[in-house]
Amino acid sequence: MTTNGIIVLSNMAITKLLGHWLCMSGFKTARFMCLRMQNRLLLQRPGRRYFLEEMKYATVLPCKGYHSLTLYIPLVTSECSIHLYRKKEDMEQKDIKMDEKYLLDQLCCLSSSKQILQLLDSTRLISDNLAAAALLKIAEVESKTGNLLSQSELLENKTFKAILLQYEQECQKLSISSLLNALKAFVQLGMDIRCSSLSCFLHECQERVFKGEMTIENLCVLGECLLSFKSDNTMIKSVINHLQIRKVESWTPEEIAMVYSFLQAISADGLQHQSLLDQMHTVASSVSTQLSPKQISSVLDSLVKLKQTEVMGLVKDLCKCSVKHVPDFTDEELANILVALNHFSYSDPYFTEALEMRVSKTAFTMSPDAVTRIMQYCNKNRILSKPIFDAVAESFVYNSENFTTYQITEQMTPFGKLNYLPPNAPDVFRRLERVMSNRYLQFQAQTLLNLLHSCTLIQRFPVNFFDKVFSPYFIQQLQDQNGNIDPYVLSQLAHLYLTVNLECPFYKGPKLFPKYRVKSFSTSGCSLETELDHTMYKKVKKGLVGLLGAKMYFASQVSSPHGYMLDIEIGLDENGFILPHCILKKSYKRIVLCIDDEKRFCSNSHNLIGKECIKQRHLKLLGYNVVQIPFYETDNLHSDEEIVEYLHKKMFPHSYRMQW
Description:
Blueprint: E1 2-3, E2 6-9, H1 11-24, E3 33-37, E4 40-45, E5 48-51, E6 58-63, E7 66-71, E8 83-85, H2 93-108, H3 113-123, E9 125-127, H4 128-145, H5 151-156, H6 158-169, H7 176-189, H8 196-210, H9 216-229, H10 233-244, H11 253-266, H12 274-286, H13 293-305, H14 312-322, H15 331-343, H16 349-362, H17 368-380, H18 386-399, H19 405-417, H20 425-438, H21 445-457, H22 463-469, H23 472-478, H24 487-503, H25 534-548, E10 555-559, E11 565-572, E12 578-579, E13 589-596, H26 610-621, E14 625-630, H27 631-634, H28 640-651
Parallel strand pairs: 8-9, 13-14
Antiparallel strand pairs: 1-2, 2-7, 3-4, 4-5, 6-7, 10-11, 11-12, 11-13
Helix pairs in contact: 2-4, 3-4, 4-7, 6-8, 7-8, 7-9, 9-10, 9-11, 11-12, 11-13, 12-14, 13-15, 15-17, 16-18, 17-19, 18-19, 18-20, 19-21, 21-24, 25-28
C-alpha cells in the first residue's frame, strides 16, 4: 500500500524483499526474521543481527501492523564497505550506544583475528572507537596464541584495509581515544612506522599535542607509543614539555602514576627530569591514600628504576597504604613492592604482619618470583617470620621443581642467614639435596657456594658436594677474566673449609689449596662477621676495667689465627689468674667476650643470626671459653656498679669478686 508517497509493506513482504536484496548484495542465502525492537526494524538470522537504520539501508517509520521504509542501495566502492560514524547526525545517539555495547560484548568473546575481522565485515557500520577496540583485540588475541599475523597479511585483508582507509581519510575527525587506541594496536602488531596510516596518525597526534587538546593520560599513552615506534625524539620532547607546563598539583592519582611510568620508560634515571619528579614526589605523598594497589606498585617500581634517593618519606607513605592492599595485590605487583622496599632498605611491622597472613594461606599457589622476593625482604631486613618461613619450607618440598636455581638459592639461604630450622627441616634439606644433585650443572658456581655456605650456618652439612667445591675446576669457575676471585667469595671458600675441618672430621675428600685460605673473614663491604658496635663496646670496656683493675688485662679487636675477629680476649694461667694481654700466647685458658648488639640478632628478636652463631660455635670447638654479652641484658644496666657485677657473674660465676 502507499501512504503520502511512501511504500508501506507488511512484515512478510518486507522479509521477501529484503531477502532478495540481501542476496543481491552478497549475503549468503539464509533464513531471516523481521522483528520490531525498540521502534527499529531488526533483521535476524542465527548468530547475527542487522539493524537496518545503522547500515543506512532503510529509513523506518513505525506504523501499527506495518513497517514503513524507504530502501537505499549502499555504495560499495571496494571489496568491503565499512563505514565509520562519529556524529549524532549519522545515527541516533541511543542507538549507537546500545549497538556498540552489543558489538563490544561480541568482541570480547572472540579468540582469533579471523573471527574479529569477520565480525567487522558483517557489521559494516561501526564507530571509530569500536574499530580501534577491534584492532587492540586482534593484537591481544594473536600475541597470546603466538600466531600474530604478519603485516602483509593484515594489509591485504579487505576489512582491515577498509578500516585503515577510512581512518586515514577522516583522521582529523577521529576522537583522541580512537587515535591512541589505534596507535597502541599498531605497537602490539609491530606495524612499520613507514606505513602511511601510521604516519598520518602520528602527524595528527602531534597537531593535537600542539593545540593542547590532550590530557595527561593521553600524553603518557602517546609518549609510550612513540617510544615503542622508536620515533623522532622531537615528538617525545614535545610530550614532555607539555607535561612540565601542566600544574602537578591538579593531577589525579591515576595521572601521577602514569607519568611516573612514562618517565621511567624514557630514561635510565630521573636526572633529566628531576625538577618535575620532585614536584610529583610531594603530590604523590599527599594523595598516596587514594592510589589503587596497581598504582602503588607502579609508583614504587618507578622510584627504583628512576634511581630516586631522597624519597624515603614517599616510600614510607606508600608502604603504609599498601598494608591494607596486601591481600589484593597480584603476585607481580607484590613482587615490585618488595623489590622497592629492599632497594630502599625499609621494612614496616604492619606490612610484615599482613604479608604473614597472605603467605601462610597462599604460599603453595604464589608465583616463584613472589615467594623469592618475600624471602629476600625477610633476609635483607633480618626479619625472622616463622609463619612465612614455615609456609615457604612446606611449599618448597612440593614446588621446588618449578623454581629456577636462582630462586631456590634465594628462598633457602635466609634459613641459614637468620639461623632458623623449620618444623619440616628433614624433608626440606632432603629435597634440597636431591634438587642440587639433579640440577648441579644448572647452578652457577657462586650461587651454589652461597647455598652450601648458608646450609653450614645451621649445621646442615652438604658433605656430598664438598669435593666438588674444593676442586680446581669449581674454583676456576669462580674466577673472573683476569683470574681473580672476589674477596667475599674467597672468604666463603675459606670459611667452608674451616667448617669442614671443625665439624666434619669424617670428610676425607679434596682439600682447599693453601693459597685460597684467607687469614681474615672480615672483608670490606660484605663480611662474614658483624662489625663491633662501639657504643656497646665502650660500656663493656668500662665495666671490665672496673672488674679486672686495668685495661692491660684484656685485648680488643684481636685477629685470631683461624680468621675470626675477637671482640675482647682475656688470658688465664693454669691457676686461673688473669694474664696481661702482652703475654696472651702463654695463656693456659682464653676467654672471648662476644659483644652482640642488635645487628647480630634477627630484627625484634633474641635469635642470633647465622654467621654469629657459627662463629661462637667454632670458637668453642677451637678451645675458647665464649661469653656472650647480648644487648638485651646490658640495656637495663645503667650504673657502673651494675655493669661490673653483671660481667663478674657472666665471666667468673663461681669465684669471688676482687675489690680494687
